[in-house]
Design goal:
This protein has 582 residues and is an alpha+beta fold. The protein contains 18 helices and 21 strands. It has helices spanning 2-8, 12-15, 38-43, 54-75, 179-187, 196-201, 205-219, 265-278, 331-340, 379-402, 418-430, 450-454, 485-492, 496-501, 524-529, 540-547, 552-555, 559-580; strands spanning 94-99, 114-115, 119-126, 131-136, 140-149, 152-158, 162-165, 170-171, 176-177, 191-193, 230-232, 246-250, 259-262, 282-286, 290-299, 302-310, 322-327, 349-357, 362-368, 460-461, 468-469. The strands form six sheets. It has a five-stranded mixed beta sheet. Strands 17-16-15-18-19 form a five-stranded antiparallel beta sheet. The chain has a four-stranded antiparallel beta sheet with strand order 11-14-12-13, with helices on one face. A hairpin with a 3-residue loop joins strand 2 (114-115) and strand 3. The longest helix has 24 residues, at 379-402.
Length: 582
């Protein structure tokens, strides 16, 4: 205690401090716990106290001890500093490409919506015929769009983050084949509604009907009544059919196109010649004298059922005048929609078409994907449901992409079993990072480490972190002194940067003994391991600075932690200034 009083009363101690050590004391401090500045003390001088007062020495000693404790805790990351929130950075909007005709403005249905609550949505809408693209292995997919807006040709290029497909990618009747664009989107790794895999499979109606046959064989004709259909790969097999009248469907077409009602054998042969000229496949199914058509649509988890009755008398209910009304959704209809929604890995949007005959029987004839037309009085509601479904899929994609490992963002550390914790836990607690040497002097020696000297050698993990390696199997180059950085990194199995990311802070270096106090005698083993001795010409200000130096891992923390630690050290310097001022 007498030594502290003599040392702190020496004015040469402050003069020996490095230049600029007290420069940041002029910064204003709003903290209520900061000590009184020297200027305030000079304005309000206090009566001098006896130099040998035990109470004054105790107060000074307690102030230094408290400041040193706060600095040590701040370096170890134990103090929870309140950090002001960083200014928000504007996120780049997500680009949604909607493939649909210009009759529906999809931008208004996505207005005000955000992906994961933080990303805006920029809608780009065009038809298949107005798009072109180029896909790359690592560069994703670049889409070129040329559209006409109010008589003006608009040309844009962008990389879509998500695609909503509301058009048929292939139609033999219109001579439109955009399957190459579907392949390009798949090549570029673009996510869509419905999936590109299902959309490509829906480019052939007989291929889709084969999936209905699988459902029919699984559920049975009572739960899933499928119409009887015959497939002919070419005209050569179209010789005859057992029953008439039949409906002949040529190739892949939509909206009632390519469908012909055949009454007898002679008309059937004429139809076979038409198929030969078309150079395509054909299907036949018995004609059903329908009372009305049934359509069950599913958008996400929303179901609707409609009944359409022809008024014009046409055998095609979707041709001519018809009356449409919504009917109750039964469990039977829900089963049809759910069974068809499992096709090709899952359909987010689908519709099942069936025919109700005059004898009271139902026959499922077709299933449609996300390109289905919306009908009824709830078209606006259905479009809003599709928009909500797309936003949900985009949010799920953002969350999934955030958990995907990458070289810059590895997987979070997993919980280790108890056996692994017993092996690796003591090693992390016993490691200590070497203190950086002061300028102009050699490296400081390691402090006393009785725990590492007396403890048996621990197993350390291999660089892959899977197989433990014994110390005897290591090379001579790896058997270094306990204070070398190579030994510290090899024992932890990761670099200091990885250790700081995992939140592991090594314990602080032992404080050097004060002058006048006998230091503890190191053991013979430690004496043999120490390679350097303290420099005799280091002044006390450098020793004091090295005492509060933090470890290498804590210095590599984020900017908020560094600012908090710097603030703590600045408060400590202010405490010293108030103590050392005259």
């Amino acid at each position: 205690m007498n030594f502290l009083r003599r040392r702190l009363s020496d004015s040469s101690f402050v003069a020996n401090l490095p230049n600029g050590y007290m420069m940041d004391l002029q910064r204003p401090d709003n903290s209520t716990s900061s000590p009184v500045s020297p200027a305030m003390e000079r304005k309000h001088p206090q009566p001098p106290q006896p130099s040998h007062s035990s109470s004054a020495g105790t107060s000074i000693f307690s102030s230094i001890s408290s400041a040193m404790k706060q600095t040590t805790q701040a370096a170890a990351g134990l103090i929870d500093h309140s950090v002001s929130p960083a200014p928000s950075v504007a996120q780049k909007p997500k680009i949604l490409l909607v493939i649909d005709d210009a009759h529906t403005d999809w931008a208004k249905y996505f207005q005000g919506k955000k992906v994961n609550g933080e990303f805006d949505i920029r809608v780009e809408q065009a038809e298949f015929s107005e798009l072109n693209l180029a896909a790359y292995v690592t560069g994703g997919c670049m889409v070129d769009m040329q559209v006409m807006r109010n008589g003006t040709k608009v040309v844009r290029s962008f990389k879509p983050d998500f695609v909503l497909i509301r058009q048929h990618a292939y139609s033999m009747a219109l001579g439109e084949d955009f399957r190459s664009l579907i392949i390009g989107l798949q090549y570029g790794g673009i996510h869509t509604v419905n999936s590109l895999y299902s959309i490509y499979n829906f480019c052939s109606k007989p291929w889709v009907f084969s999936q209905l046959i699988k459902i029919f064989n699984s559920l049975g004709p009572a739960k899933f009544p499928l119409v009887e259909q015959t497939f002919f790969p070419s005209h050569k097999q179209m010789l005859t059919t057992p029953n008439f009248p039949v409906v002949v469907k040529l190739g892949h077409a939509h909206a009632g196109m390519g469908k012909v009602k055949v009454e007898n054998q002679h008309d059937f042969r004429d139809m076979a010649s038409i198929v030969a000229m078309a150079k395509t496949y054909a299907t036949t199914e018995p004609f059903i004298d329908s009372k009305y058509d049934i359509r069950i649509q599913k958008i996400g988890s929303n179901y609707k059922a409609y009944m359409r009755t022809s008024i014009s008398g046409n055998w095609k209910a979707n041709t001519g005048s018809a009356m449409l009304e919504q009917i109750a959704m039964t469990e039977r209809y829900r089963l049809w929609a759910d069974a068809c929604a499992e096709m090709f890995g899952g359909l987010d949007i689908c519709a099942v078409k069936a025919v109700h005959s005059k004898d009271g029987k139902d026959y499922i004839i077709e299933v449609m994907d996300s390109s289905m037309p919306l009908i009824g009085e709830h078209v606006e509601e259905d479009r809003q449901l599709i928009a909500d479904l797309v936003v949900s899929k985009m949010t799920q994609l953002v969350i999934t992409a955030g958990s995907t490992p990458s070289p810059l963002r590895p997987w979070p550390p997993q919980v280790q079993p108890a056996s692994m914790k017993s092996q690796t836990g003591p090693q992390l607690g016993q490691l200590s990072q070497p203190r950086p040497p002061p300028q102009g002097g050699p490296r400081q020696p390691q402090g006393s480490q009785p725990a590492r000297t007396n403890a048996p050698p621990q197993q350390r993990l291999s660089p892959q972190g899977q197989q433990p390696q014994s110390p005897q199997s290591t090379s001579p180059q790896q058997q270094r002194s306990p204070g070398s950085p190579q030994q510290v990194r090899s024992a932890t199995g990761s670099s200091p940067v990885q250790a700081s990311k995992a939140g592991v802070f090594p314990p602080q270096q032992p404080r050097p003994p004060a002058q006048g106090r006998a230091p503890s005698q190191p053991s013979p083993t430690e004496t043999s391991k120490q390679q350097a001795t303290p420099h005799p010409h280091l002044n006390k200000s450098q020793s004091l600075t090295n005492t509060f130096s933090i470890s290498e891992s804590s210095q590599r923390g984020n900017a908020n932690e560094d600012e908090a630690k710097a603030e703590t050290i600045r408060n400590l310097r202010k405490s010293f200034a108030s103590l050392f001022s005259d």
